[in-house]
């Protein structure tokens, strides 16, 4: 069998994204000890067990395998410096700049962590160049602090990174329900009228559109996209879909004449202008799709070659 390249194997292990922990205990004299580890895993809920592994080359191996127990401190995103401190090979006092206290079982608990588990030592199992420490959890606590991640040899801070990303606009789907020269309008809650619309959630555009059609209680099918525009004032991205419908009494709203006069009470200027354009295009049977924002844009005719 061909020998495996240890460096390549370590890099491959690094493809598995993990959290970062500091594992702590006390020596025979009561001095706090600790090391950084990402080889942490839950084992069992009943009984409550977890495991970490420690290198056999560690100077503190005997303190962890022969002691009463240990604690696992899951570091938060702001504690990269603590990870580095406990990850260095140093004979200095790693706890000198760290606020900590004794846990309910007795091992050191570091302040500000994402979570901690204080354990008695259940079993120490030699495994190659490491020893697996199985701990029985005697106390634990989780905090709101997001955990620090580790991937391919580098720290990751998903929560902090996500908070810094610019938030995109909400997507709003609108249904333009047409039947026999009429369009369905509903109360917009502001003393005017609107077409049925809703924000798109995790279920996606199609599901939101189906729910809108079902909510007005008329038989209709999703047709073609009629307008795509962004409203910078409300930070919303609008998608309007023409939906051929069967003329009937709706569960909400009413069908009105598709004309400039018929849609005059639509409150939103951008929506009203879109319906006025639809009324004009319906008369001549030449439709287009609007792209732009709530103030200006362009209409691309259906037969127009968009590749030019």
TrEMBL record:
UniProt keywords, alphabetically: Oxidoreductase
InterPro entries noted in UniProt: Flavin_Rdtase-like_dom (IPR002563), NADH-dep_flavin_reductase (IPR050268), Split_barrel_FMN-bd (IPR012349)
Top EC category: oxidoreductase
Pfam families for the chain: Flavin_Reduct (PF01613)
Molecular function GO labels: oxidoreductase activity
EC number of this enzyme: 1.-.-.-
Limits of the Flavin reductase like domain: 13-157
UniProt protein name: Flavin reductase family protein
Species of the source: Tabrizicola soli
């Amino acid at each position: 069998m061909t020998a495996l390249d240890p460096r390549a194997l370590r890099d491959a292990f690094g493809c598995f994204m993990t959290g970062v922990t500091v594992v702590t205990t006390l020596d025979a004299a009561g001095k706090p000890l600790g090391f950084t580890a990402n080889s942490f895993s839950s084992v069992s809920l009943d009984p409550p067990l977890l495991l970490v592994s420690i290198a056999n080359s560690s100077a503190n191996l005997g303190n962890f395998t022969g002691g009463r127990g240990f604690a696992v401190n899951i570091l938060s995103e702001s504690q990269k410096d603590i990870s580095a401190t406990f990850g260095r090979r140093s004979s200095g006092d790693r706890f000198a700049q760290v606020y900590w206290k004794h846990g309910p079982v007795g091992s050191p608990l570091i302040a500000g962590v994402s979570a901690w588990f204080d354990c008695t030592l259940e079993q120490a199992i030699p495994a190659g160049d490491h020893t697996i420490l199985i701990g029985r959890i005697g106390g634990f606590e989780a905090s709101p602090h997001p955990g620090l991640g580790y991937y391919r040899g580098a720290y990751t801070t998903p929560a902090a990174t996500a908070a810094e990303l610019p938030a995109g606009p909400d997507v709003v789907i609108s249904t333009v329900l047409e039947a026999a020269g009429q369009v369905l309008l509903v109360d917009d809650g502001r003393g005017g009228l609107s077409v049925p619309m809703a924000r798109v959630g995790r279920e996606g555009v199609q599901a939101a559109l189906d729910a809108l059609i079902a909510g007005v209680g008329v038989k209709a099918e999703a047709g073609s996209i009629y307008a795509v525009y962004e409203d910078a004032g409300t930070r919303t991205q609008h998608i309007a879909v023409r939906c051929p419908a069967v003329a009937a009494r709706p569960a909400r709203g009413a069908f009105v004449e598709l004309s400039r006069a018929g849609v005059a009470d639509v409150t939103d200027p951008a929506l009203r202008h879109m319906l006025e354009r639809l009324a004009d295009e319906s008369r001549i049977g030449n439709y287009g799709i609007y792209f732009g924002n709530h103030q200006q844009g362009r209409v691309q005719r259906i037969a127009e070659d968009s590749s030019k």
